[in-house]
Amino acid sequence: MTQRVKKAGDILRDVSLDLLPGQLTAIAGSSGAGKTVLLETLAGLRTPAQGVVLHDGSRPGPAGPEFGLVPQEDIIHRELPLGRTLRYAAGLRMAPGTPPAVVDEAVTAALGTLGLSRRTGVPVGSLSGGERKRASIAVELLTRPRVLFLDEPTSGLDPVTGADLMRTLRTLAGQGTTVLVTTHTPADLAVCDQVVFLSPHGTPAYTGPAAGLCAAFAVPSVEEVYGAVAAGARVAAEPLGELTRPETETRAAAPLVRLGAGTLRQWALLTRRGAETLLRNRLSVAVLVGSPVMIVAMFAVLFRAGAFDPRSPDPGSSAMILFWIAFGAFFFGLSDGLLQICTELPVLRRERLAGMRLGPYVASKLTVMLPVLAVADAVLLAVLRALDRLPTADWPTYGSLFVTSVLASAAALALGLLASAAVREPGQATLMLPLLCFPQVLFSGAFVPVPRMAWAGRAISWAMTPHELAGGS
C-alpha cells in the first residue's frame, strides 16, 4: 500500500511517506503540527490541496471498506453492555443478510483480539479508560480492516495502560493490519516500525525507523527530539528497510465485504439501540418520567378547580390554562429532543463514515421519542381532567386536544433535534432550552394580545406552538 501527501491546506507541507502492509507507524510532533490533519488526509477524510493519496494505487474514498478509524473520543454508547454495543455496530456495518452466527463470530473475535472477552456483559461506562479505548478499536475490527487509523489512542491514559494499548496495536500490526497512530507520548514510539515526526510548521523533520530517531538528531532521548525539532533541526528521510517479522505474520487478512445495512434495517437497528440506550440511562429515565410528573403537579396547584364551570365563567383563567397546557406539550418535546444528538456526536460521525444514513437515524429518534411524548401528553390531560382543571367534554373533543398536543410535542421535538445537532456538547444544548422557550411564551398571545403586537410580533406569533394549540382549542 502506497500513501503520499504533498500538502494539505496551509497546515502540511512537503509530506511524503510510504506505509507497508503489517506496519505500525506513528505520527509525532508538537501540538498544532498537523498530526490529526495528516491522519485524516491519509484516511481519505480530507482532500489534499496539492499532491495525492494513493491506497494500492487508487485514490481512497471517505471511510472505504478496508479502513478502520478510531478518533480521540469514544465511538460507543456508554449505557450499553460491551457485547450489545458491538453487535449493534456489526449489524450496521456488515452486509444485509449476514447470518447472526457470523455477527456473533465477528464480535467474539474482536473482543478476543483486544483482550475483552471477559468484559462482554459490562456496561461500557463501567470500563476503565484503557478498556474503553480498546472497545472502540474492537468496533473497527468487526469488519477486519486492512488499515487502522487511530488519533492519539493513548491520550489521557496512565503510562502502564498506554503501553499495554500500544503492545496491542503492535500485535495487530504483526497479524497483518497496517496501523497508523498519532501520539504525544514519547514512549509510544519505541514499539513502532516507522516514525513521521512533524515540525511545528507541518513539514516532516524525520521520516524513518523508530530505532534511528534519537541517533538522527544526535540526542539521547525522544523527549529531546521535540526540543531539537522545535529549534529547527531536520534530517533527510531514511529508508525503512524490510520488516523482520515472518512473512506468514505480515500477510494482511482478507477484509469482509462491507456494504452496510439497508435503510429499513438501519432504522430498525437504530430504533432498538436508541430505546435500549434510553432505558439503561437512569438519568434519562428520571427526566422523562419526572418532568411530566412535576409539571402536572405544578399545574394542579396553579389552576383552581372548576375554572371552566359555565355557572361562573372565567375567560382569563380558561385561556391561561389552555396556554400552559400547550406550553407543557411544547416543553416535553423540546427538553427530550435537545440531548438526543449532541450526547452521541462522536458515535454519529463515525457511523456516518461507515455508511449510516441520516434518514433512518432521525426516524429512529422520532420512533423512540414520540410514544413517550404521547404518553406524557395523555397523562397531562387525564390528570387535569380528573382534578376538574379541564371542562367536561365528549371523547372527540379530548381526542382532538390530545392529537393537537402530540403534534405540538412532535414539532418541539423536531426543533430540539435540530438544536441538538447544531451544538457540540450537552452544556450548550442546556443553554438553548430557555432561549427556545422564551419566544414561545412571549409571542404566544397569552400575555400580550396578538392584535396589540407590532407587525413583526404578530408574524412571529403564528409560528408559536402554544398560540396554535390554544387558539385551535
Report on this structure.
It is a single chain. The protein has 473 residues and is an alpha/beta fold. It has two domains: 7-66 and 145-250, P-loop containing nucleotide triphosphate hydrolases (Rossmann fold, 3-Layer(aba) Sandwich), CATH 3.40.50; 263-472, no CATH class. It is 51% helix and 7% strand. The protein contains 17 helices and eight strands. The protein has a six-stranded mixed beta sheet, with helices on both faces. Strand 7 and strand 8 form a beta hairpin. Mean pLDDT is 84; it is low at 1-9 and 242-259.
Which structural traits does this protein have?
disordered N terminus; alpha/beta; single chain; 473 residues; 51% helix; 8 strands; 17 helices; Rossmann fold; 7% strand; six-stranded mixed beta sheet; 2 domains; two-stranded antiparallel sheet
Low-pLDDT runs of 5+ residues are 1-9, 242-259
Shape: elongated
Task: Give the N-terminus to C-terminus distance in angstroms.
Answer: 67 Å
How many E strands? 8
N to C succession of SSEs: EEEHEHHHEHEEEHHHHHHHHHHHH
Beta-strand percentage? 5-15%
Radius of gyration: 28 Å
| Biggest beta-sheet profile | 6 strands, mixed
Assembly status: single chain
Q: Could you say how many structural domains there are in total?
A: 2
Helical fraction equals 40-55%
For the residues shown, what is the average pLDDT? 84
Lateral arrangement of strands in the main beta sheet: 4-5-6-3-7-8
**Annotation field: number of helices:** 17
